[in-house]
Amino acid sequence: MERVVITGIGLVTPSGIRPGETWRSLLAGQSGIAPITLFDPSDYAVRFAGEVKGFDGSAHVPKKKLKEMGRYAQLSIAATHACLDDSGIELSDHDREVCGTFIGVGLGGLENIYKYSLTLRDRGPRKISPYFIPSVIANLAAGQVAIEHGLGGPSYCTTSACASSAHAIGDAMGWIQRGRTPLMVAGGSEACITGLGVAGFTTMFALSRRNDEPERASRPWDRGRDGFVMAEGAATLLLESLDHAKARGARIYAELTGYGATCDGYHITQPEPGARGALRAMRMALAEARLDPSQIDYINAHGTSTPAGDVQEAKAIIELCGDHALSKKLWVSSTKSAMGHLLGGAGAVEAALCALALVEGAVPPTLNLDDPEPDCPLDFVAHQARERDLQHVMSNSFGFGGTNATLILSRGGL
After folding, report:
1. Residue in 81, 149, 244, 302 annotated catalytic
2. 362 is in which domain, residue-wise?
3. Is 334 in contact with 90 (CB distance < 8 Å)?
4. Which of 71, 93, 197, 301 lies most in the core, judged by the most C-beta atoms within 10 Å?
5. Structural domain tally of the chain?
6. What is the pLDDT of residues 3-35, one digit of tens each?
């Protein structure tokens, strides 16, 4: 089996667009959540979200191609440009021929589905743009990235709700491990801050309604939590076999050592009691990484700020890690507290943050954890970032339909 390493990172999030901006913002404990500007939310019960502020697709995509792309694809193009620049790679003809593109997306171009539904109703079928379908189907983030860079390896989209991009990275990891390709572009994207998207999640009672203090609305494991905060953004990672990375003298952020994927098989939105599916995903990832739970230093938790999900994940972590967790040797945090929940893009963003944590020796904090849930006696790195020598870290991503994905990243031995 080939070893798989991360050699490039691109992040476009509510916490920053430029290289390093997201990481610095998170370590500083700054919130990227604010009132919605992408549409008029005056009549909505929820009027705030984690928007990518100041994003201009035309800065990353030729104007004549913008009409082909939903915002989710534009964000992914921008993140991929940043990733490949960060990696320092000069793609050879052979690299381009074999490099795959896996971009996880949960919903795709929701803004254009809404827009063209109104066009159909008000102006009739002849007024629907021929670019409508390409601008909304979820695999066109991966497709547009592959077209942009001439990548001829496998290209597809994993759509598994909030685990979409974690699954994309795990699948890409497997292609390299099996020797089917030496490099992959992998990540995720989402852009659902639209009237339709916000209304849909609001009527499910899934979203926080703290309109008067949006920056304090996402509060994982706090007793005052009342739902997650919608966010948008993208992350792209360049994955390479260790041999390919070493041959070109690449800087290596981390090694991907474990991946687990399961399903609760229980409920469309609620986690299984005891989070048995999540627990199995974590154990599966540990088994592949050949690690004991006591060797995990930090978990970037799914931690969405929902009443049921936070408690169930914490209980699963306690069952997995036992005294290692209860004695506070294990650190856990949720970066969703600062940027909101990027839905299908969350797993990739959080995997990227785990890689940066390994390199920088720092753990981003859980913001707004003022009154900790008594059923969750873990060290959640509340309020302020901390420094620590990290060797192995875990990233959890869970989604509607009971889908679970866990990634393990490691520093040692490279």
Report:
1. 302
2. 258-410
3. no
4. 301
5. 2
6. 999 999 999 999 999 889 999 999 999 999 999
